[in-house]
Amino acid sequence: MYTFERMMKQPPILKWFTNIQATEPLCKGLNFDAFLIKPVQRIPRYKLFIDRLVKCTPENDIDFPKLPLALEKCDQIANIINQAKEKQIQQENMSKTAARLDCGTELLMVPGRSFVKDSQIDKITRKSKKQPRCLFLFTDVLMVATPTIKEKHTVQVKFQLKGSEVKDLPDDTEKGFSNLFQFLSYPKSLELSASSKEEKAEWIRLLQFHIQEANKSIGGEKIKIIPIFEPDSKVKKCPLCDEKFTAIFRRHHCRQCRRVVCGNCTKHKRKLPSQSSGERKKRVCDDCWKHDENWTPEGISHSQNPLSPRDNSSSDEDS
């Protein structure tokens, strides 16, 4: 049907089909869509007819034992048709979504993947600013794209749902942010602001459901959830050297533990597991440098984050 709909948008083909519909007696005035649906419509009619026969046929009739079997067969066929129809709708939705996304070399159409939901939402940065983003949720991954005026959105990052978490957050009245929730995953975690309470509840519900379903799948390594960056405004002094921050004595972020520390305590750099092969080494604090690249300080909770988490964008290398 998706292919047929695209063909009907071409004027020569549409004119040809319209002429046949008007001039061919066999068409009886019905369009092509009506003929496609007719075989599917017959099955429910058969089911209703046999169901009526079961109610009207005496139990001692010679044909009565066959009627329940026929009704069961109709049920089975109807279920098969419904499943095929649902699969077709999912494939059409995936095709339409793929046409809207620029995934680079990433393959979007993979077996078992279905499109679930998309909408524009605000990402909250660690500097307490809103950045518009488009979320595309599939049954196994979440893709975050930048909204553009072009037909296609450019995908910035893809998250595997398996092992990820989603958390509800209270409104931040001080900053004026409402309908907040966290998506905690790898290679980064996000704090998001939905357009309404209903939209927030819907995103949390869908994410939780599909994360649970993804966790049931066999295979694949369990991801290490990356903490969200600690916001600048929450930290008045360096937790390592205890020096107070000023306009000159600046704040910096450790890229491993995501804490706010001073420049003197973040002179080391290393490659982190969340980085791609072509990226430069990232700034890490003295605490993290004493341990391996997978270490995280105790006291950083993902469920009740004491750091009042903010966005963990990998930009601003020197901040």
TrEMBL record:
Residues 301-312 have a biased composition (Polar residues). It is found in: Cytoplasm, Cytoskeleton. This is FYVE-type domain-containing protein. Keywords: Cytoplasm, Cytoskeleton, Guanine-nucleotide releasing factor, Metal-binding, Zinc, Zinc-finger. It holds the Pfam family FYVE. Residues 114-212 form the PH domain. Its main location: cytoplasm. Residues 1-84 form the DH domain. It comes from the Eukaryota. PANTHER family: FACIOGENITAL DYSPLASIA PROTEIN, LD03170P. GO terms for cellular component: cytoplasm; cytoskeleton. GO terms for molecular function: guanyl-nucleotide exchange factor activity; zinc ion binding. Residues 294-319 are annotated as: Disordered. Gene3D superfamilies: Dbl homology (DH) domain (1.20.900.10), Pleckstrin-homology domain (PH domain)/Phosphotyrosine-binding domain (PTB) (2.30.29.30), Zinc/RING finger domain, C3HC4 (zinc finger) (3.30.40.10). Residues 232-293 form the FYVE-type domain.
